[in-house]
Design brief:
Number of helices: 8
Number of strands: 18
Number of domains: 1
CATH superfamily: Clavaminate synthase-like
CATH architecture: 4-Layer Sandwich
Shape: globular
Radius of gyration: 19 Å
Low-confidence stretches: none
Bound molecules: succinic acid
């Protein structure tokens, strides 16, 4: 469906029953060497070699750390695609991205983001993600988290920014929490097409790809299924309008949310080094890939797995 068509009038979206279930797990006894990365979010974990299989206790401790910090950074992890997939699978089932041509041959769980050219075309999707979003928010069951391995990065630039949406929710007034808590938002992958065209590096999505990703409705405020904490769940990259409202009625509220959610106080900006592995929680963060480097000269080559998640409630 064309985005203009989607914006014409509010349509009642089919309501599927979400199962509000918080799975609080027992805290792991394994102690990790954890160092907060910023006051907003994120932590670096030291002393881990991800080429090795981690014990169940260590995986549980990483899950605890992810719930607490929303983003985990492991430096100097020169891992193979097999090791990347094996580590990611410890946290859940893995997605195969809808943009199938960018999946790593023999490893369809790995989505390649790259501006490196071979035989006249890039070996991954280039120049994307330059808009605030949470991965796969356009699916009925969006992603739990993403694990990105930086293989080559520009000397300067190509950072990724992350915004803490639990903190953004907490900072709202009670009145605004009540208003937003009652709203549901129509999300559509087609919206991101606008941003792809804008940056001019990536090809637009095909109608076939868009057919596989019809509009979905999610609550504006979601509850983290493991911590029980509430987070704003509105990405300018995919948001169309509130269920039961017109696009014109929705716009001022959306504009307020877009501005509020990216207050610098909620943001951590990651400057990539080769073989950083960053694991972020899509249920509590949005991110933005800064395209401020020279795509003709500066190579940026990343591989990402995306862990399946639950229906937001
Ligand atoms: C993305 O997952 O949107 C890409 C992030 C990045 O390339 O930094």
């Amino acid at each position: 469906m064309a985005i203009s068509e989607a914006l014409e009038k509010p349509r009642k979206m089919p309501r599927t029953k979400a199962r509000p279930r918080i799975r609080k797990t027992r805290k792991s006894k394994v102690k990790l060497d954890i160092h907060p990365a910023s006051s907003a979010l994120g932590a670096e974990i030291l002393g881990i070699d991800l080429r090795e299989r981690q014990s169940p206790g260590t995986i549980a401790a990483m899950r605890d750390a992810l719930n607490e910090h929303s983003l985990l950074l492991f430096r100097d992890q020169d891992i193979s695609p097999d090791q990347h997939v094996a580590f990611s699978r410890r946290f859940g089932k893995l997605e195969h991205h809808v943009l199938a041509e960018y999946l790593l041959p023999d490893h369809p769980e790995i989505y390649v983001l790259s501006n490196i050219r071979k035989k006249g075309k890039t070996i991954g999707r280039a120049g994307v993600g330059e808009y605030w979003h949470s991965d796969l928010q356009y699916l009925a069951k969006p992603s739990l988290g993403s694990i990105m391995h930086a293989i080559e990065v520009p000397e300067v630039g190509g950072d990724t920014m992350f915004a803490n949406q639990v903190a953004a929710y907490d900072a709202l007034s009670d009145g605004m929490k009540e208003l937003l808590g009652g709203l549901r938002l129509v999300n559509h992958f087609a919206k991101a097409r606008h941003y792809s065209a804008q940056v001019g590096y990536a090809r637009p999505f095909s109608d076939e790809e868009l057919k596989k990703t019809p509009p979905v409705v999610h609550p504006v405020v979601r509850t983290h299924p493991e911590t029980g904490r509430k987070a704003l769940y509105v990405s300018p990259g995919f948001a169309l309008y509130f269920e039961g409202m017109t696009e014109a009625e929705s716009r001022p509220i959306l504009e307020f949310i877009y501005k509020h959610t990216i207050n610098p106080r909620f943001i951590y900006r990651h400057q990539w080094r080769p073989h950083d592995l960053v694991f972020w929680d899509n249920r509590s963060l949005m991110h933005y890939a800064v395209q401020d480097y020279d795509h003709a000269k500066d190579r940026r080559h990343m591989q990402r797995t995306t862990i399946s998640g639950d229906k937001p409630f």
